[in-house]
Structure formats: C-alpha cells, structure tokens
Design a protein that fits this description.
Keywords: Membrane, Transmembrane, Transmembrane helix. InterPro entries: ABC-3C_MC8. Pfam families: MC8. The protein is of the alpha+beta class and 78 residues long. It has a single domain, classed as Winged helix-like DNA-binding domain superfamily/Winged helix DNA-binding domain (Arc Repressor Mutant, subunit A, Orthogonal Bundle). Helix content is 46%, strand content 14%. It has 3 helices and 3 strands. Helix 1 crosses helix 3.
Length: 78
C-alpha cells in the first residue's frame, strides 16, 4: 500500500518502512541485505512483510543500488 488511508497504521506502510531503510543507508552508505532486514526487525515489529516492497520503492526512485557480488545495497542519493 503506497497511499496510506485512514485505516492504515502510519508506521506500518511501505513509505514508512522505506524511510527507516533510507535513514539506515544514508548513515552507513552500504549495508548488506541481512543487516538491513535485521535492523528493520529490531526497529519495529510487524513490518517484515513490507521489507521487499520498501526496497523496491527505493530502487525505483533511484535512491539505492544493489551490488550482487557483496549482496549489499548502496545509497546513491540521486
């Protein structure tokens, strides 16, 4: 769900989860897939299903790139 409605919890939307991931990537520049997932699990409960859609949103916006050799995401900041 990209557009939050009045019935959606504000912290359990794709945009909110993408914001958490983006803050982490801005601070560290490069983060592995497993470390990002662990950070999200520790930051908030019940948002594990939104992890991949949030990564997809950031990728489509051109804010992150995936590095397959290291299985990591890099913040590009474009």
């Amino acid at each position: 769900m990209l557009r939050p409605s009045k019935h959606a919890h504000p912290d359990k939307t794709v945009v909110a989860v993408a914001t958490l991931l983006l803050r982490r990537l801005q601070a560290r520049r490069v983060e592995t897939f497993d470390d990002l997932r662990a950070h999200l699990s520790g930051a908030q409960e019940g948002v594990g299903t939104l992890f991949l859609p949030a990564l997809s949103l950031l990728f489509l916006l051109g804010l992150i790139e995936y590095r397959p050799k290291t299985d990591a995401f890099e913040y590009t900041g474009r």
